[in-house]
Task: structure prediction
Amino acid sequence: MSVGLLTREPPTHRMQHHFHRILLGYHMNDLNPIKPQLARIRDMLQLLTASQATAPIDLLAIATNPKDLDRRRMLRILKEKARHGAQIHPPDSKLFGQSIRTLLSPPHPELDESFEPLLMALQKSRWIKPGRPEESPFLGMLCGYGGKMFGVFTREERGALEDWIRGLPTNSKDIDEVEDGMGGPETGVEDETGGRSMERSSAIATATDRINSVTAHLRFSTNHNSDTSLLARALPTSFEVPGPVLAAARSFLDSLFSSPTDISHSAFAQNSLSSRIMNSNLNPAILKLEGVLLDSFFVPALHPTPIGEALLKVRMAQGDYSRGMEGRPIWEIWGGVLARERWVRVAIERTCPRSEKLIDGIHRIDTDTDSSELDEYKTYIHALSRHPQSHTPELLGALLHLSSLLYAPSGLSERFNLALFERTRVEEVREATRKGCEELHRRIPKEWNGRVERGWAAGRRLIAETARG
Amino acid sequence: MADRRRTLFRRLISGDPSATSDAAAFLQSKLAESEKIVGHLMSKGGKSLAGLIGRFDATEAQRILDAEYSATLSAFDNYLARRKDGGARELLPSAGFAKIWLANSAPTKLVDGSWLQHCLASSTPPALSRFHAALFSIFADELGEGVLKQNHVTAFLDTLESAGVRLPRIDSPAFSSSPHLLSSAFDCALVQLSLSLFPESKLPEIIGYNLGYEQLPVHLLVSVHELEELGIDSTYFALHVSIDNHSSGHAKLAASCAWEYLEYVRAEFGEQEWVVCLAFGSL
Result:
């Protein structure tokens, strides 16, 4: 792509460059290799069904396999030509070692299927070059001008023959690829053209350097605590996490879940934050982690399920809230208030404009969350969020635990339903989120019991350890 | 079926975190293809968004989208006229083909909205979060605003059911290797799932993809018409005709999101980039 940009006028400024990028996304909608394939299937089906009076066919099964359609169309053509063909070929003429007359006069000439042996013989014969209709002597020599079969096939039938030959596997290994080979080069995955933007490759290089140093540490370090700290740094919220870090995250989870934890049922009913946590600058970090947890659940298979429904309600409560609050996610706003509170507790007053305070607080959050105190808990949440499929129940447990800290009647959010937010719907949002979590809890399938609690208990233990520390 | 698209689909749908780099490579190849289309449109001239590259203007861009919308409506009028004159169904000639068409739409429709699924992640920089919030509200709509019955995926599952198409669960290996689905049926879904993994670094592309996806295509109108004729539940498709409507629906939201984003970029970075480009040009 960079070459393409060089050969054209460089974009006059960044907005035009971003408009170009928007259009690249826009026109990705036009890349739809299935469209011509479906159109072809539709046309072929119409041809088939128009003249096909025999047994009903499993349309879905055959039509999703165009090769099969090509073959069926060929069988029908052969059937139609057979009677004449059987008489016209000399008695001793052979195709792939078999008598053409016999192949053309099967016991049930009214059935398309009777001509399978003929089609197979033709396919294997020297007359057909699989995959290459234009090089097949059957079309060129026999059916071409001057050939013995010139004029036997109509233009449409010739097209069917070409399609059939084109779809034949060129060797046994190709069978899977042929299905999609007809639309031209469209696979994309193998296509390495395009290059990367400079911006992107330098970002990747930086990230790779960082990750390499982290994984090197992980490999050689014998100290468990420093492992966790490194892991906490190496599992950022972006999606590009390299394999070794993921594996390390996985074994961190394994070790965490293998140690005995209190998973009594009452754990769901009561929860409280130590005052140390309540009043420390760790709050913003915890709040932000809730977003990480919620986001990790967004995998399409979960969407149309009762759990997905409840999760979306929880997330939407916050989405609504953030729309009302200048587009800032709720954890950042609360985090901002909390961070602010630490500095000027008395000063959540009415002197400066609300948004300024918030922005101030938000800026603070990013520096505060660098605190290593919460490393174990942070690592836990990030490691879980990297494995939404294998650890769905534990993830739910961790989310419910965290939400109970925030949204339970005695939870953190209660304290910040302040005059500052009078005109917003903070209480409404808090209620909606709490209700969503309760609903989520009710919907947990029985077979997840134990695992959900395990996720809950691990979160609780790690936070409690931080509070004691 | 060893097609790489099927494998990548399975890995992405099951949330395999190690699939990210393959998704990035896939996306890159699709963007390169898209670049060719854009280049072609630019050289062709005429009224298209690509014609505005280098001289973007929101009013002009919106005018082009408005014109495309009118063209879609009149194409549909023409279609209705052809049908009134006794013309045959055009998109779905038979119930049998409708099944095939629906089944092969499934990989895309069952991940409806997924390109937006990680918008509003906690890592979103504050400056961009208002765009993410707008995109997220479209995503929430796709998921029925938390009401399972109105979830678009549920609606599409109902359509499949009503047409008698049975497919395995989307996250099962049987789905991605289903012989009833063409390998190319996974392309759109892969674009969507791959985009979703880069909510920040590919934000412009996501905004653009969303803009394109939410425009009303004539085949959507035709599909509602013809599915109804075949006695197949068309709720999913009818839903998108109304929800993506041009004047206030997703199409409108998507367009405002794009124009506002560009305005933000202009205000925030316009001058700096100007300097960079001048330096670049003098090399």
User: Anything to note?
Assistant: Chain A has a mean pLDDT of 66. The longest strand of chain A covers residues 94-95. Chain A touches chain B through 104 residues (CB under 8 Å).
